[in-house]
């Protein structure tokens, strides 16, 4: 009898209901389904080198998706994020191969460049009040032009190569592009970066004051300003976070592949957003999860490589990918509805 | 204290993990002449073809047709995959190695980005043949042979042809901004033409844009009397742009399609540089089969050239028929 008199607001929800309100639960389920599907359908998907391949594919996408998810929870988009991965790699490669800088110094310079562009994006969005969609579309185009123009101007061709013979390549390569041997299979270090970045972002989001600010500015910038949240600072920092992630991915790419093409990265910005959305981020901001975005990237990587493992005709590749992504998002959506019921 | 101990342990474990790491190697000669294939000598051969073409590209479709036809004739399982991003292409190669395919055919638009993946494939005992681009790095990475057209030579041929036709000023139309092969073609054309050469950038995925930019270029410079396009679709755009403006410029192009065949017949396009990419799909599959069954190696360390083959009014009728069925 006493249980019925308890106030529902302090009642302890059941475990299942508590799980269901997590934004990443749909993505997690989707990941399990995709994983089981390809493990059953193909022979090598779950072998050591198979796992290394799809984890590798998911890792760089995942680093970006995590940063983009924070930004999306904060209520903004960054369309320049894809091209930015090429810009940072180009800055590093140009300084190292053309100007003869030590790789570490070049990496530092490109980090400063990335953070400056991120801060500029954030500052312009806050200053003008324009949608970030428009502002970062502008920087996306500008960077695309800069990438091509500067590369051509400096090297006379459209790609910068020759990283392997620069000073400090080995030590920098050890940090950003080495492989870890587990049971005879080489796993890319980018997987470690991805997991580390996701854990750090998740901790930041749910355990720190800054995390609360992110949710607040994404939910309602007006009311968060009213209660003393530094809206401008938070958003600028979020843009700088995606720029930082783009620098990390750019560095991983340039040190691993030792060359960079001026047209690299174009179009990837949408993959980041897709991965974040699969992971439970709302396009309207204020809701989402960093771990979810990392899982979203994992689904993407598993599906993309799984299709190759399954040896399906590549003509249908995009169709498979599209159907798989749509189903993941639909499952996610169903969970979110249920979550909202539970919360009420 | 125990808290600090835990921290120390975590750091130690981390260091231990790192010690198992292997960094990417700096400039170093790869082991020459990788040992013969460890694959089984009998049974169906499986070959993965991994190109840098985008899905739906007419050019790469012919390569795919060539590889698949060879597979049908020789009882080889051929799987074609492609990705324009060098990093993703490298992952597709890793994927094929993980599947332990019997042979690998790779186009190297960005050789350095594929270096590690290809060397890993060679080390795993998978014979690799490179196609289309990346000729100068092919042998160094341990590939058996390279099948393709030398882009610079092809560009030179095109430039020379225009000079023979008495042209004075050439416009080279680049349709993929970041593509090294296209830059090489224009550079080659510059050498072969030995005259005034300008380049123009257009977007292949936006035909309207391509046409109006070429229109603008020939309109503003009436002394332009030759236009070299690097793709058959762009050639058609150039023809209509020139007609619309009423310019006297003549169009030459790389690559064939039915439009170009029609335009050559009609005299709108003077020639097409055909690199016969069907061979780039067909031959490697055949070579890999010969290598596995008979340890044959083709080319003697030199690339096997599939082009350039200049198609003009005199040969267009024969070649045109094969374009229609998707093999030229």
Task: Walk me through the structure.
The complex is a heterodimer of chains A (344) and B (328). Chain A is 73% helix and 4% strand. Chain A has 344 residues and is mainly alpha-helical. In chain A, strand 2 (179-182) and strand 3 (185-188) form a beta hairpin. The mean pLDDT of chain A is 90. Chain B is an alpha/beta fold and 328 residues long. Chain B is built from twelve helices and 13 strands. In chain B, helix 2 (58-74) runs parallel beside helix 11 (277-294) and helix 3 packs parallel to helix 4. Chain B starts with a helix and ends with a helix. The relative contact order of chain B is 0.13. Chain A: It comes from Amycolatopsis coloradensis. Chain A: This is ABC transporter permease.
What characteristics describe this protein?
heterodimer; A: 344 residues; mainly alpha; two-stranded antiparallel ribbon; 4 strands; globular; B: 328 residues; alpha/beta; six-stranded parallel beta sheet; 13 strands; 48% helix; Sugar ABC transporter substrate-binding protein (chain B); ABC transporter permease (chain A)
């Amino acid at each position: 009898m006493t249980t019925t008199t308890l106030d529902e607001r302090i009642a302890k929800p059941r475990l299942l209901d508590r799980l269901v309100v997590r934004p990443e639960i749909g993505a997690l389920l989707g990941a399990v389904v995709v994983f089981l599907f390809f493990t059953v359908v193909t022979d090598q998907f779950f072998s050591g080198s198979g796992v290394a391949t799809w984890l590798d594919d998911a890792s760089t996408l995942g680093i970006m998706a995590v940063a983009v998810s924070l930004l999306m929870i904060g209520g903004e988009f960054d369309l320049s994020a894809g091209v930015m991965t090429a810009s940072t790699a180009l800055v590093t490669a140009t300084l190292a191969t053309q100007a003869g800088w030590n790789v570490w110094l070049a990496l530092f310079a490109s980090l400063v460049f990335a953070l400056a562009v991120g801060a500029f994006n954030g500052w312009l969005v806050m200053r003008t009040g324009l949608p970030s969609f428009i502002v970062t579309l502008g920087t996306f185009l500008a960077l695309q032009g800069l990438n091509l123009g500067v590369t051509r101007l400096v090297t006379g061709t459209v790609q910068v190569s020759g990283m392997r013979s620069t000073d400090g390549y080995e030590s920098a390569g050890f940090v950003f592009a080495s492989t870890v041997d587990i049971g005879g299979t080489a796993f890319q270090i980018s997987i470690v970066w991805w997991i580390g970045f996701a854990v750090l972002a998740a901790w930041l989001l749910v355990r720190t004051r800054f995390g609360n600010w992110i949710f607040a500015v994404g939910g309602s910038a007006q009311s968060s300003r009213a209660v003393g949240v530094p809206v401008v600072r938070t958003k600028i920092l979020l843009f700088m976070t995606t720029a930082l992630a783009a620098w990390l991915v750019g560095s991983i790419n340039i040190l691993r592949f030792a060359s960079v093409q001026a047209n690299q990265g174009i179009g990837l910005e949408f993959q980041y957003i897709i991965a974040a959305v699969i992971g439970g981020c709302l396009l309207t901001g204020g809701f989402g999860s960093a771990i979810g975005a990392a899982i979203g990237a994992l689904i993407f990587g598993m599906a993309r490589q799984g299709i190759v493992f399954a040896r399906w005709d590549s003509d249908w590749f995009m169709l498979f990918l599209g159907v798989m992504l749509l189903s993941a998002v639909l499952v996610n959506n169903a969970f979110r509805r249920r979550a909202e019921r539970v919360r009420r | 204290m125990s808290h600090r101990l835990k921290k120390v342990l975590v750091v130690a474990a981390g260091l231990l993990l790192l010690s198992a790491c292997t960094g990417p190697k700096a400039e170093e000669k790869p082991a020459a002449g990788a040992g013969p294939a460890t694959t089984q000598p009998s049974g169906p051969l499986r070959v993965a073809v991994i190109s840098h073409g985008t899905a739906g590209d007419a050019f790469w479709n012919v390569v795919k047709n060539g590889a698949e036809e060879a597979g049908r004739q020789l009882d080889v399982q051929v799987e074609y995959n492609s990705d324009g991003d060098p990093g993703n292409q490298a992952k597709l190669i890793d994927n094929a190695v993980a599947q332990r395919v019997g042979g690998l055919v790779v186009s190297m638009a960005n050789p350095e980005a594929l270096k590690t993946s290809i060397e890993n494939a060679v080390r795993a005992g998978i014979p690799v043949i490179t196609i289309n681009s990346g000729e100068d790095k092919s042998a160094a990475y341990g590939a058996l042979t390279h099948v393709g057209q030398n882009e610079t030579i092809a560009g030179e041929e095109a430039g020379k042809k225009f000079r023979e036709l008495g042209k004075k000023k050439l416009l080279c139309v680049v349709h993929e901004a970041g593509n090294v092969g296209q830059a090489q073609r224009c550079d080659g054309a510059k050498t072969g033409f030995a005259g005034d050469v300008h380049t123009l950038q257009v977007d292949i995925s936006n035909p309207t844009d391509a046409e109006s930019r070429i229109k603008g270029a020939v309109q503003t410079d009436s002394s332009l009397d030759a236009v070299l396009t690097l793709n058959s679709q762009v050639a058609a755009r150039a023809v209509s742009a020139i007609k619309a403006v009423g310019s006297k410029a003549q169009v030459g192009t790389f690559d064939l399609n039915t439009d170009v065949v029609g335009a050559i017949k009609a005299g709108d396009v003077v020639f097409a540089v055909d690199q016969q990419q069907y061979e780039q799909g067909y031959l490697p599959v055949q070579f890999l089969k010969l290598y596995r069954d008979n340890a044959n190696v083709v080319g003697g360390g030199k690339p096997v050239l599939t082009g350039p083959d200049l198609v003009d009014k005199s040969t267009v009728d024969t070649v045109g028929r094969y374009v229609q069925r998707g093999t030229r």
